[in-house]
Structure formats: structure tokens, C-alpha cells
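PROTEIN DESIGN WORKSHEET
SECTION A - STRUCTURE
LENGTH: 151
C-ALPHA CELLS:
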């Protein structure tokens, strides 16, 4: 797997948007206990990351009526970004360029491509339940971990 940066940090955990939503909305039953422990541990180490594109994705899903949050999108994002040990990964030129040059086959969803590129640039492990991203990871293109039982 090519790293876009010289030093990878496999202890760094990046959450796919749906995992971030589930954690923040208390829908932990969607994830394995092992995954929840991994996320909590990363939070304790201040090694938990969410991509800036996930903020956009949450807002778009809520605007389109595909997601109902426990509060307004503005309030939800403000609260969700203050979770213990969580930091926001900026959308940098390096990440945007990486998202347009991913190896192998992924799919065209820009948010997913940016999240995957963020994980690659940071050398982080991406927690997701998205089968297409998990398959992409199994091909060695990004470090992934399933949030569900096959983890």
C-alpha cells in the first residue's frame, strides 16, 4: 500500500461517516463491541479522526431527508466535533489530489473517495461497514477494519 506521507500512524483511527453518526447518535448496536472498544481507546489516546467531508455528508443526508438527527445539523455537528479525543481532518490539497488518484477500483462517490484518501494520507485505519471500501482495503489499497462482525 502506498503511503502519501512518510510516516504512517496505524494507531490513528478514522471513522467513516455512518460510523461517526452511529457513535454520536448512540446506535452502538450497529457496531461490534470490539469496534466500540477500539474507537473508545482511540478517543482516550486523542487518535480519533473524522474527515471534513463527513460534516458535509451529514448535512447533505439531513437536508435530503435521508438522515434524521437528534437535533439540528448545526447543533449536531458542533456537539459531535467535541467528542473525546476526536479531531477533524482538514480537506487538504494532498488529500483531494490523492482522492483523484486512488489505485485499483473503488467507486465514484466523492465523499467516500475523500475519506479513503484521508486514511491513506494520514496512514490511519478506516473503520467502515461499506462493503466496497472494505473490499478496496482487502486489496491492500487502504488500511480498513469492518465495524461489524467480520472485523
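SECTION B - SEQUENCE
RESIDUE ASSIGNMENT:
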Amino acid at each position: 500500500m502506498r503511503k502519501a506521507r512518510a510516516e504512517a500512524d496505524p494507531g490513528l483511527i478514522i471513522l467513516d461517516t455512518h460510523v461517526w453518526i452511529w457513535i454520536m447518535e448512540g446506535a452502538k448496536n450497529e457496531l461490534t463491541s470490539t469496534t466500540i472498544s477500539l474507537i473508545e481507546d482511540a478517543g482516550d489516546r486523542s487518535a480519533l479522526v473524522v474527515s471534513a467531508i463527513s460534516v458535509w455528508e451529514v448535512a447533505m443526508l439531513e437536508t435530503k431527508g435521508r438522515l434524521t438527527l437528534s437535533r439540528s445539523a448545526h447543533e449536531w455537528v458542533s456537539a459531535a466535533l467535541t467528542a473525546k479525543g476526536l479531531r477533524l481532518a482538514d480537506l487538504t490539497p494532498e488529500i483531494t489530489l490523492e482522492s483523484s488518484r486512488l489505485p485499483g477500483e473503488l467507486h465514484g462517490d466523492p465523499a467516500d473517495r475523500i475519506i479513503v484518501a484521508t486514511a491513506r494520507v494520514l496512514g490511519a485505519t478506516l473503520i467502515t461497514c461499506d462493503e466496497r471500501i472494505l473490499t478496496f482495503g482487502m486489496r491492500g489499497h487502504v488500511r480498513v477494519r469492518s465495524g461489524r462482525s467480520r472485523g
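SECTION C - NOTES
The chain has one domain: 13-145.
The chain has seven helices and five strands.
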